[in-house]
């Protein structure tokens, strides 16, 4: 009985002819199905039609063989392993090449050494030093006198200089030199003539406090009596005026004149 069934199954398997057209139609419908993954579809489209037909035939024969083997109770024959589908590499984006920004060069500072010290401005009084043991209180139209202001104290002093002229002066330079006897510091100055008529400076050259008045160009000192004063602090005590001095240089229509001298310490 079993031999008869086995014989008939083998005859049926041998006589079986698969419907190739129907199988191809199903494969093509599956390929056109939008639900199929893009990658699988692209691979299927890239294979030739003959390869697809071959796969269908192989699958049909394998199915028939398995059926016959199952019927006769024998071990199933496994179909030959199909070659793996070619792997389609996914396109990999090439990272852009980043060019590092150039680092700006450090500025180089060239040192040329210390700047030369400016040349000292010429001091008018240095060309006309006033001797401490000499004086000339009168010259031409000029008369002069130096004295200690009566309001001076043991902390602060004012030196007064009186100038009298009998002619208008077109050029005048007045200097008061206060010796540095200890703690001497400028606190101010004044004159009875208009302040805009003079350029006033205070300097400390070589151990003295130098007050200077220079008449502006185009201005005139009228004939009469005029006063100039220097004010300063000093070390506590009665200050000695022995080394203080003054000098006046002036010009008028009658020529150039100069007077100089010291200050009286009579209080």
TrEMBL record:
Keywords: Membrane, Transmembrane, Transmembrane helix. It comes from the Bacteria. Residues 135-148 have a biased composition (Basic and acidic residues). Residues 83-152 are annotated as: Disordered. Residues 83-103 have a biased composition (Pro residues). The chain crosses the membrane at residues 47-72. This is Uncharacterized protein. The lineage of its organism: Bacteria, Bacillati, Actinomycetota, Actinomycetes, Propionibacteriales.
């Amino acid at each position: 009985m079993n031999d008869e069934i086995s014989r008939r199954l083998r005859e049926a398997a041998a006589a079986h002819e698969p419907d190739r057209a129907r199988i191809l139609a199903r494969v093509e419908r599956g390929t056109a199905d939008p639900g199929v993954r893009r990658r699988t579809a692209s691979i299927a489209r890239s294979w030739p039609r003959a390869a697809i037909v071959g796969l269908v035939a192989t699958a049909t024969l394998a199915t028939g063989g398995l059926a016959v083997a199952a019927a006769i109770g024998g071990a199933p024959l496994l179909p030959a392993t199909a070659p793996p589908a070619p792997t389609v590499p996914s396109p990999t984006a090439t990272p852009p090449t980043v060019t590092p920004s150039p680092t700006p060069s450090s500025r180089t500072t060239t040192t040329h050494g210390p700047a030369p010290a400016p040349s000292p401005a010429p001091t008018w009084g240095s060309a006309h030093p006033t001797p401490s043991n000499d004086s000339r209180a009168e010259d031409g139209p000029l008369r002069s006198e130096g004295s200690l202001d009566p309001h001076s104290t043991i902390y602060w002093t004012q030196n007064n200089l009186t100038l009298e002229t009998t002619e208008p002066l077109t050029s005048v330079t007045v200097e008061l030199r206060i010796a540095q006897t200890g703690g001497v510091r400028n606190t101010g100055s004044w004159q009875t003539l208009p302040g805009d008529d003079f350029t006033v400076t205070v300097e400390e050259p070589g151990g003295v406090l130098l007050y200077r008045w220079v008449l502006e160009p185009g201005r005139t000192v009228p004939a009469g009596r005029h006063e100039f004063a220097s004010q300063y602090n000093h070390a506590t005590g009665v200050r000695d005026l022995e080394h203080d001095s003054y000098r006046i240089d002036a010009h008028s229509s009658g020529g150039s004149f100069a007077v100089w001298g010291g200050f009286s310490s009579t209080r």
